[in-house]
Amino acid sequence: MRIDIISCVPQLLESPFQHSILKRAQQKGLVEIHIHNLRDYASDKYKSVDDYAFGHEAGMVLKIEPIAKCLRSLQSQRKYDEIIYTSPDGETFDQKSANRLSLLQNIIILCGHYKGVDERVREHFITKEISIGDYVLSGGELAAAVIADAVIRLIPGVLSDETSALTDSFQDGLIAPPVYTRPADFEGMKVPEILLSGHTAKISAWNLEQSIKRTKERRPALYEKIKHHLSH
Ligand code: SAH
Q: Is the pTM of this model over 0.90?
């Protein structure tokens, strides 16, 4: 998979992809991440990528020319499955969206800034708009990092334990069960006996029971949606 991220503050995207799981995914050749500085596509001598909003008193808007130039340059090199714009009014990102995106070959994520991007970019270039939640960020960079992270860890081979992503919250419609590590007893706070028993079938049953209990308590709407699939 290849992810191209377009931003006017590319520095904000440096660290998230240079460590841990996302770094290893790139080293293993499972994903390519290319970050593009919008300023490199600005045509005036000041390298300006934003301008005043028509009809509004305050706030700057990202101009269409540099964005169009950058998108066209990328599209002339390969075919993209999706050109995404991060936007608070887009469809809300969830695990299902992450699963779907993880099956694609090439995607572009355009990060807005200031008041957003010129509406004509959204009308004519963007194929999908994604929000990471009902709150407003100062730029799309953190949203792009969130989306890319959730998608990349689903690519087969990225997580060292192949089954690991499958047991995460939401993957099967349930919240993940609690997890523990050593020591088994910390100042009298004990790990549930069952997990130390070595009895695989009982442990699986306990984990499922905990998942169902948590989903019921913490995501009642989700529980209502999937309860008829559960054997209990
Ligand atoms: N004026 C816009 C908000 C601009 S915030 C509005 O009211 O809708 C600046 C940029 O941050 C946006 O263009 C978008 O790219 C990004 N952004 C802000 N909140 C976001 C969210 N919840 N999800 C995804 N991107 C977001």
A: yes
